Amino acid sequence: MKIEPRVSLIVNGAHVTPRVLEVLVAILQEGSQKKAAETLGISVPVLHRYIKKLEKSVGTAIMKTTPIGTELTDEGEQLVMEYMALKSKLKRSNRIVVGGTIITEDLLLWALTNFDKEGTIDLIISDDERNIKDFEAGLMDLVILDDPLYIYDLENIIWEEIGEDRLIHVNRGTYYLKFKYGAQRIGFKHLENTGIAYQIKGITRYLPALIQSPFSFFINESLLTKKGLKIKSATPPDLLTHKIIVIYRDDKEEILRLVKELSRQKNREETIYQKR
Hints:
The protein is α/β, with parallel strands linked by helices.
């Protein structure tokens, strides 16, 4: 059975199908509605209806007529560039792609060391937002989330709890520096629920910059432990405990087995850290 992914886009809340995107590609390449229609094997009126329907749904002009032919607007070209970039990514082999952040990097490495002896699984370390975007686009097969609250934002996903982590709260006043990684929303939601005023002054990806800043912050206890750091929390860490969530596709047996391995390694990781 041959299975191939197809790229579609959500633009201003409207679903743009692969067929419509191919119409835009043809217009960009041919510079003429007539030639584009011939390339696609459709009539010019049909092509025109595709464009008008798209413009109405996304709320902006996609195509324009010039003295030398037909061109896409800047917005139209942007759609084509995004579409082509995603198509290029989807041309990857059947290799499994998994991802996490610097918080869960060691967990993934431990699991893959035991599970992927041949090194055939691709590992991507980024942030939750980027990983989720790629997962929804079909570019990743499994993602470990720092922030479990994201599962409420996602639809029709398969997920599983594989462990727990806690946040450490450093209180240096009202102003906070937000760390790009970890379950930050849980920390700030705790402040809101307890009526504590705060203001976020910026975001950093660099742990030393976070720790050395004059601002308050939240940081995952597991990351501090890996770095050999001990920081006293202004809030009892048990109040900032959260689940570690993995989202995944269940169309490959290897992914299902990897989820079990991640859960096993997470338990092993927690046991090791408790002994330190």
